[in-house]
Amino acid sequence: xxxxxxxxxxxxxxxxxxxxxxxxxxxxxxxxxxxxxxxxxxxxxxxxxxxxxxxxxxxxxxxxxxxxxxxxxxxxxxxxxxxxxxxxxxxxxxxxxxxxxxxxxxxxxxxxxxxxxxxxxxxxxxxxxxxxxxxxxxxxxxxxxxxxxxxxxxxxxxxxxxxxxxxxxxxxxxxxxxxxxxxxxxxxxxxxxxxxxxxxxxxxxxxxxxxxxxxxxxxxxxxxxxxxxxxxxxxxxxxxxxxxxxxxxxxxxxxxxxxxxxxxxxxxxxxxxxxxxxxxxxxxxxxxxxxxxxxxxxxxxxxxxxxxxxxxxxxxxxxxxxxxxxxxxxxxxxxxxxxxxxxxxxxxxxxxxxxxxxxxxxxxxxxxxxxxxxxxxxxxxxxxxxxxxxxxxxxxxxxxxxxxxxxxxxxxxxxxxxxxxxxxxxxxxxxxxxxxxxxxxxxxxxxxxxxxxxxxxxxxxxxxxxxxxxxxxxxxxxxxxxxxxxxxxxxxxxxxxxxxxxxxxxxxxxxxxxxxxxxxxxxxxxxxxxxxxxxxxxxxxxxxxxxxxxxxxxxxxxxxxxxxxxxxxxxxxxxxxxxxxxxxxxxxxxxxxxxxxxxxxxxxxxxxxxxxxxxxxxxxxxxxxxxxxxxxxxxxxxxxxxxxxxxxxxxxxxxxxxxxxxxxxxxxxxxxxxxxxxxxxxxxxxxxxxxxxxxxxxxxxxxxxxxxxxxxxxxxxxxxxxxxxxxxxx
Length: 730
Description:
Layout: H1 2-77, E1 106-113, E2 116-124, H2 131-144, E3 156-159, E4 162-170, E5 185-192, H3 194-203, E6 209-212, E7 220-226, E8 231-236, H4 241-289, H5 300-317, E9 321-328, H6 331-338, H7 340-357, E10 363-368, E11 371-377, H8 382-397, E12 400-402, E13 405-407, E14 411-418, H9 425-441, E15 447-449, H10 452-473, E16 478-486, E17 492-503, E18 507-509, H11 511-520, H12 524-539, E19 546-550, H13 553-557, H14 561-572, E20 579-584, H15 585-589, H16 592-604, E21 608-614, H17 621-626, E22 631-634, H18 636-642, H19 646-661, E23 665-669, H20 674-683, E24 687-689, H21 699-706, H22 712-725
Parallel strand pairs: 3-7, 14-15, 17-19, 19-20, 20-21, 21-22, 22-23, 23-24
Antiparallel strand pairs: 1-2, 1-5, 3-4, 4-5, 6-8, 7-8, 9-11, 9-14, 10-11, 12-13, 16-17, 16-24, 17-18
């Protein structure tokens, strides 16, 4: 269900994450464009309206200025203060200065003394019948509501269905001053026809201007005073530049929107395709996640899930099952000898053989490497799982033929039963692994059922694996030392360093419990360097005493082994001739040429070499003569058997005489009795090591032993006293 939910949710989330932000961006861009265009068009229209209004006001101002100039001309050339007012014919002809020559135009000059009209002179056009009285009322209204300076529109008055432009000035007295005359005001009146009003709009570049008492609210207006006290407005339809541009802008916006929608559709299609591909890939990944690519079998994850299901079914039905862990014996050697391609084919063939042996209800999986696991259902007792295991071992005995290559394989099987051993999945897997280790340790090509002791051993191994690295890094390990004495005077000539691990929870852990783990987990190099450095440091307290250190095969074959040893010796400041490295026979024969080269280099620096456990391995005289050893050590097993079998005594005799003949120091391990001591003395053995002289003890206890010279009996008494006070384990 988890994989299914992941498979369906992830493409939808991908579409939602990619498509909707793009859609929102597109919508936002289009909306932004429309808002910007609307704002720009409104701004342009507002600017255009203001510009039109300014042009109309400017046209009216120009008219007022010209009328004022005409009146100034009349006043400058005519004495209007005389008792007899001039006639139209006596006034200067200034009609050419006026900008209007429209048919029906009329203007007149009105001379007043106070509120009384002295005379009206028609300057041009035709005076309409009955207009004289109206004109007097117009002039009186104009003079009683003087215009505001600088506002041309205030010089216009609406009267009797017509617009009049009026300009008033005082009449000038001629020089020299004449007889005192009454004060006179001269008003020049210009009457606009409808054509003149329309001309104002055309002159200003606007739409036609009309007069209206109730203009269209959508139009622009300029209010004009009316002689009746109300307002009449010049109104015009403002031109809108955006109206010409807007269709194009809308077209552009529509085209952009269409392109955006097309792009969005393309993106949608692409995402849909990506989503389909992703679903297909996830389906494939889901299958591969539960399947081993090499063998085609279910993998560890699928096996664990299936085991959980079978355990749940067994609790409902009461049916038992068995879990079998299978490991191909020495599969690493197959890869090393024949290559990984052959190794992969072996995995496939083994997987097929196992599949042929199982029922449809059983489950076979490859856990990784050369490890397989089986769930055998319907198991009621040990014999059901035992029968299947025997069939598997018989099938594995048949050699695997691949062309000209024939590979012999075997298998080790660990078996755990449910519910007898456990009904918990993790516990069953752990116990099956424990049983597998037991089968491999028992000689391989066999099967083993889990036992309680196995589980405890596996738990301890897990603790070692988890805590060993930390113990090395935190300096939690300790060294104990066992003396090696000369057989003649019992003088301590060397001490062998033996590593111990005082675990804070599990107590003192012996070397055999963690050395192998260190080798498997790649910690043996760090562990070996720690032991060498600590041993050399402690040995500086014991001048004249050699320090013997065991070296593992992996450590010795490391490419930097010699340089690391010499670096540590130099750092500690110890004489290299006091350092003695103990090697087993298997260490040097694995790669004889490389081992010989390393040993020659070490001896060139003065480091001594000892062959440990001599007689238990290859024991080839050729290797003994070839390699430059300084000492051979007789394994304790020969000395233990020498008291009961004559063959062991003869073998010890041969080893001692061989060593003396080759000029090597011979040391016997495991000396515990005076009889063994005398036997070795008679043979001519050089050095002894064992509980007769001392158990492995701490460095402080070695200080005590070296500070108390004496006979063997005295030393033995001292050792017993030290051992009683020591808390160290043998």
